[in-house]
Design a protein that fits this description.
four-stranded antiparallel sheet; 130 residues; Nucleoplasmin_core_dom; 48% strand; 8 strands; acetylation; chromatin binding
């Protein structure tokens, strides 16, 4: 997790580019914490699109009196990604998880000892009788 405030407006999550693993960062919850004012706090995510262009997308607009917390249901992102407090003074706490998937050699040989499963024939679907 990380916390965005008036003094720390952004946080960048990055991984070692020479790492031979796939990384997934999932954002779970964005919430206001102690000391937050009743003002709009807009959190945006800055990343890269499929054309490698930088894009900024607002993901949360929190206000203490009406929406102090937002569940993002594990919103998945590819690092590197920056979280920025685009409006408000926070403090806003972001929580999530980081998964590392180690790549394995994609070339493999089929094992001849494995028994093949026989396909079962399914009976045709008949119309219901009235």
């Amino acid at each position: 997790g990380c916390e965005l405030t008036a003094n720390t407006k952004s946080y960048t999550f990055q991984v070692d580019e020479e790492d031979d693993s796939d990384h997934v960062l999932a954002l779970s919850v964005v919430c206001l914490t102690d000391g937050a004012k009743d003002e709009c706090n807009v959190v945006e995510v800055i990343g890269r699109n499929h054309e490698n262009q930088e894009i900024a997308v607002p993901v949360a607009n929190l206000k203490l009196s009406c929406q102090p917390l937002l569940s993002l249901d594990n919103f998945k992102l590819q690092p590197p990604v920056t979280f920025r407090l685009a409006a408000g003074s926070g403090p806003v706490h972001l929580t999530g998880w980081h998964r590392i998937v180690h790549r394995e050699d994609a070339s493999f040989e089929e094992d001849d000892d494995l028994s093949e499963e026989e396909e079962e024939e399914l009976a045709p679907i008949m119309p219901a009788k009235k």
